[in-house]
Specification:
By secondary structure, this protein is an alpha+beta fold. It has helices at residues 4-20, 36-41, 43-49, 91-100, 148-153, 155-161, 163-185, 227-235, 273-292, 315-323, 332-342, 351-363, 415-430, 441-449, 461-468; strands at 52-63, 68-74, 79-85, 106-115, 121-132, 189-190, 196-197, 209-212, 217-221, 240-248, 260-269, 296-299, 302-305, 312-314, 370-373, 375-376, 385-386, 389-393, 395-400, 403-404, 406-410, 454-460. Strand 1 and strand 2 (68-74) form a beta hairpin. It starts with a helix and ends in a 16-residue tail after the last helix.
């Protein structure tokens, strides 16, 4: 079997042969009347008309020998069989194809729509042109790219040959299109907010830090989809806003985590979390049905159905049931002892991080769908406290297959309370907690001017990945790779 270098050398010779005949192997434009999918859709009428048409695409397979060749062409919409017959086209053109064309090349073909002897819709070629001469081969049809690192590094080849992955990327686009469609129909304004921030807000995560030379200023890539900015828009009199955009978090890679992903956040004034849960449930069911055509799923070892009304469970109560710990009253020492007893590793020794770790232990056992409510104030620095219990908040998270899929609050709009919570977060940062939320004092100033009662809601690529039952990294078009 020839090496890659030997294949490349052979193709370079073919490239030179094309150029020696004054043929540009990389033209800016070639004849193309239809996408292949359009050609197939109109095949019957084109066949009846007998007129000559042009198609273009990548050569995926060549079979046959001598006076007839069967060439499979793919243009990204569909594949088509092109039939090259030596006695029905210019002999020099036929010979040039044999001598210079390879699997992987892009070509333009002209001819008539006709069915083959096996009744396959085909284009009988009268002439052809090189559109792009490839110098390296495509992966073998059956073996493909097997090594995961190679698949991610040469994603363009993986996507070319992996139909399942191609279909998932189309579904992912449909997922976000359906999200956008639903919200616009409900009167939400799509907005854009900064991705570079002086202080990060809206989530608890370690940010990426960079330096803005023009202002000699350290800035951060955002860790939420503009939460504190969209709340400013609530104060500015916009009743409903949403943004779908990229989020960046400087954390580890896992099947459910990535350093860069797409997220949605929407904000609705004069809506609380009770009304918001009902609205969000309708949104998710619509988006899932539009994307997957079903509401029943099996993923990550869990089975669940999104049909019907989703029940609510209490954060405090579920942790107490499964661990015996009341996170509202337990000491740091009690929590650490319980985590050691359960064999759970943890980072940080402050109560917020320990509370979160205990919950995550319990969460893995829940298939859902359920709304997690009564989330402690300590782990919800931007959410309103409940009137009947100030230690828990009006926060709700959808739990599916042992993981949090969404986040939502009755947003905190009391500036005094917000200032106090930011002070707590500031002390956590000073104590070494890299995921604690940065204080944004200008946001507090905005709250002092007044922000209406508001419900905020968020989900991201993770929801799609769970429903598709694929790791988050697999669904990234181009996953981040360490350079070779």
């Amino acid at each position: 079997m020839a090496s890659l270098e030997e294949i490349r050398e052979a193709r370079l010779k073919k490239l030179e042969k094309l150029r020696s005949q004054n043929i540009n192997p990389y033209p800016a434009k070639v004849p193309r009347d239809f996408a292949v999918a359009e050609f197939k859709k109109d095949f019957e009428s084109l066949e009846k008309s007998g007129r000559e048409v042009s198609l273009a695409g990548r050569v995926m397979n060549v079979r046959g020998q001598g006076a007839i060749l069967f060439v499979v062409l793919f243009d990204g919409t569909e594949k088509i069989q092109a039939i090259f017959k030596k006695d029905e086209m210019d002999e020099a053109a036929f010979s040039l194809f044999v001598d210079t064309a390879d699997i992987g090349d892009f070509i333009s073909i002209s001819g008539k729509a006709m069915k083959s002897k096996t009744d396959e819709e085909s284009l009988f070629v009268s002439s052809w042109l090189m559109a792009t001469k490839s110098l390296l081969p495509l992966p073998e049809k059956w073996a493909g790219l097997q090594d995961v690192d190679e698949r991610y590094r040469k994603r363009y080849l993986d996507l070319l040959n992996n139909q399942e992955l191609r279909d998932l990327l189309y579904k992912k686009a449909k997922f976000w299109d359906a999200t956008r469609t639903f919200l616009k129909k409900e009167g939400f304004l799509e907005v854009e907010t900064p991705t570079l921030e002086v202080t990060t807000g809206g989530a608890e995560a370690e940010p990426f830090k960079t330096h803005l030379n023009d202002l000699d200023l350290d800035v951060y890539l955002r860790i939420s989809v503009g939460e504190l900015w969209q709340k400013r828009l609530m104060a500015a009199g916009f009743p409903r806003t949403f943004e779908i955009g990229r989020v960046y978090r400087n954390e580890g890679t896992s099947p459910d985590h990535a350093q860069e992903f797409t997220g949605l956040e929407f904000y609705a004034s004069f809506m609380d979390y009770t009304e918001g849960i009902t609205f969000a449930e309708s949104l998710i069911k619509y988006v899932v049905k539009e994307t997957f055509g079903k509401l029943d799923f099996e993923t990550r070892g869990h089975k669940f159905s999104l049909e019907g009304e989703w029940p609510k469970i209490s954060y405090v109560q579920i942790v107490k049931e499964k661990t015996g710990i009341d996170v509202l009253t337990a000491s740091v020492e009690d929590m650490e002892d319980k985590l050691k007893e359960l064999g759970v590793t943890y980072e940080g020794k402050n109560k917020e991080r320990l509370t979160d770790t205990l919950w995550k232990y319990c969460r893995k056992q829940i298939s859902g769908p359920v709304w997690l409510v009564d989330v402690p104030k300590l782990v919800s620095p931007l959410s309103k406290s409940k009137v009947d219990n100030s230690e828990v908040t009006e926060r709700a998270q959808l739990i599916l297959a042992g993981s949090e899929m969404t986040n939502s609050f009755s947003e905190l709009n009391d500036p005094i309370d917000q200032r106090e919570r930011f002070e707590v977060q500031k002390k956590l940062i000073e104590g070494g907690d890299k995921e604690a939320m940065m204080a944004d004092w200008e946001f507090v100033e905005m709250l002092e001017h007044g922000m209406p009662p508001t419900f905020g809601f968020a989900y991201g690529d993770r929801l799609f990945s769970f429903l598709a039952d694929k790791p988050l990294r697999e669904l990234q078009t181009f996953p981040l790779m360490r350079p070779k």
